[in-house]
Design brief:
Strand 3, helix 4 and strand 4 form a beta-alpha-beta unit. Helix 10 packs parallel to helix 11 and helix 12 crosses helix 13. This protein has an eight-stranded parallel β-sheet. It has two domains: about 230 residues, Alpha-Beta Barrel (TIM Barrel); about 40 residues, no CATH class. The protein has about 280 residues and is α/β, with parallel strands linked by helices.
Length: about 280
């Protein structure tokens, strides 16, 4: 079942892209089982259709319920593009209603700070890192106050570096490690991994999702509803893990912040935080 957290994007496992030019798909995407949807004003929209896509989005966002809005992120056009400021003007009215914003081509913390100032203090931003410059700035981007999560645009990243990664993508391990580490240092939730382009290959999707989990990612971008269930399964938590996490939090409440022992294992603040993340990621 989809998450119903106050800020679902912070702990979403599956984030399903939907072109802004296809508003008839918004509701279906929200019903797909995806924790969040990402309505795309950037790569999925041709340059000549940017303005009409934004207009369609403005017309259809009011049709979503508050819960649906909280499960919605908008990928805007990047800073410096001709459409960026108009995207800001539209989104400024919606961030206060729970809509998150994905900033593509995130490379500069100062530019991201400016975006946040323009959007307002309610804005929750996912910084999408798609270049070496973005990776170099990952720590600074993650520490921006309104950034709630990092995401990895691994396809554009390969283009930026002239890479041709093989199927298992060991060539990208250094980047994935860096994003997980930057998220941890900034005390952000685990980052979001990139898409699997072969939408008809369930085995490839499962392998990619398992790899994301192994590296420490907590979410994955999807480009087809058929990918959602596999991502949720791979990046979710087992029943035993959920039960353990709830026991930890119940016992922690009894001990008033002091370390204690549970099943022969010492439980201190890092263990409690891990349990909180599991419970947050499994609320329905």
């Amino acid at each position: 079942m989809p998450l119903t957290l106050k800020a679902p994007v912070s702990h979403a496992r599956s984030l399903l892209f939907v072109p802004a030019t296809k508003p008839e798909r918004f509701a279906k995407a929200l019903e797909s089982g995806a924790d969040c949807i990402v309505i795309d004003l950037e790569d999925a929209v041709a340059e000549g259709s940017k303005d009409s896509a934004r207009e369609q989005l403005a017309q259809h966002l009011p049709q979503l319920t508050p819960v649906q809005l909280a499960r919605t992120a908008i990928r805007m056009n990047a800073v410096g593009t001709p459409w960026h400021e108009a995207d800001i003007a539209l989104l400024r009215d919606w961030v206060g209603q729970g809509v998150a914003v994905m900033c593509p081509k995130s490379e500069d913390a100062g530019a991201l700070w400016t975006v946040a100032q323009k959007l307002g203090e309610s804005a929750r931003i996912v910084a999408l890192i798609e270049s070496l410059a973005g990776l170099d700035a990952a720590d600074a981007l993650a520490r921006e106050p309104q950034v709630v999560r990092l995401a990895f645009g691994h396809l554009d990243f390969q283009l930026d570096l002239g890479m041709r990664a093989t199927a298992e993508e060991p060539e990208l391990a250094f980047a994935r490690n860096a994003l997980v580490a930057a998220s941890r240092r900034a005390r952000l939730p685990a980052p979001i991994d990139g898409v699997t382009t072969d939408t008809g290959n369930a085995q490839r999707l499962a392998a990619d999702a398992r790899r994301a989990r192994a590296f420490g990612f907590g979410g994955k971008l999807c480009i087809h509803p058929a990918q959602v269930a596999g991502v949720n399964e791979a990046l979710g938590h087992t029943g035993a893990e959920q039960a353990w996490a709830r026991r930890v939090l119940e016992e922690a409440a009894k001990h008033g912040g002091e370390a204690f022992s549970l099943d022969g294992r010492m439980v201190d603040l890092p263990v409690i935080r891990a349990a909180e993340a599991i419970v947050a990621g499994t609320q329905t």
